[in-house]
Amino acid sequence: MHPATASSTGSRAAREPRVAYIVDDDELVRSALGSLLRSIDLEVRAFDSTEAFLAAPRADGPSCLVLDVRLRGQSGLALQQSLLQLGRPPIPIIFMTGHGDIAMTVKAMKAGAVDFLSKPFRDQDMIDAVTAALDSDARRADAERKLLALRSCWNSLTPRERAVTQHVAAGLMNKQIADRLGIAEITAKIHRGQAMRKMNSRSVAELVRKMEALGVVQEPHFA
């Protein structure tokens, strides 16, 4: 990735608000939690039901969900399963409950919950859990943006440039690549250089790492 691209990515991440969603049917809990999380400069969006949360738009920046297990209507655990089935972008979930048990905790954690806090909990425990969840979501979103940019770079390669990179990844030199593809050595060198430039790679090792990240490294087919 060019420095300018990396810089703009970092600037965008810095501008994006960090959002904590709260789903709890107790108004006092929503109010107290909202005040606590706003005190650490988070944007807070609170809902009294899972249905209201699902109907609301998702923020673009890092976010997490502080979710009560026992709710009127759909339970918190059921919402967790619904989010998985809907295929929405993953959101770190911090469960809270006054009636938790080991089986419930295990089920939530196996489904991807990042923490499970029993009421009453210390304010600092909630702050720590939410901060860790938001940091995790920011890293996930950044990794997805980088992979999307990398995919765009790969898609910009011509079929011949992709063929050359497959041979480069296999460890072949320009002369060997030229022989395999039935082209002049200088042509193989040009395609290789163009591919390296489009993939923003300064070395073969960097190019191969990016190809591996995209899952496009494969054994070249030798006719």
Helical run tally: 10
Distance between the termini: 34 Å
List how many beta strands DSSP finds: 5
Task: State the share of residues found in helices, binned by percent.
Answer: 55-70%
> What's the CATH first level of the largest domain?
Alpha Beta
CATH topology of the largest domain: Rossmann fold
Q: Count structural domains.
A: 2
Q: Can you characterise this structure?
A:
The structure is a single chain. The chain is of the alpha/beta class. The protein has 2 domains: 3-150, Rossmann fold; 156-214, Winged helix-like DNA-binding domain superfamily/Winged helix DNA-binding domain (Arc Repressor Mutant, subunit A). The protein is 57% helix and 11% strand. The protein is built from 10 helices and 5 strands; from the N terminus they run αβαβαβαβαβααααα. It has helices at residues 3-15, 27-38, 50-55, 76-86, 102-110, 123-155, 159-169, 174-181, 185-198, 204-214; strands at 19-23, 43-47, 63-68, 93-97, 115-118. It has a 5-stranded parallel β-sheet, sandwiched between helices. α5 links the parallel β4 and β5. α7 crosses α9 (185-198). The longest helix has 33 residues, at 123-155. The radius of gyration is 24 Å and the shape is elongated. The relative contact order is 0.10. Residues 1-11 have low confidence and may be disordered.
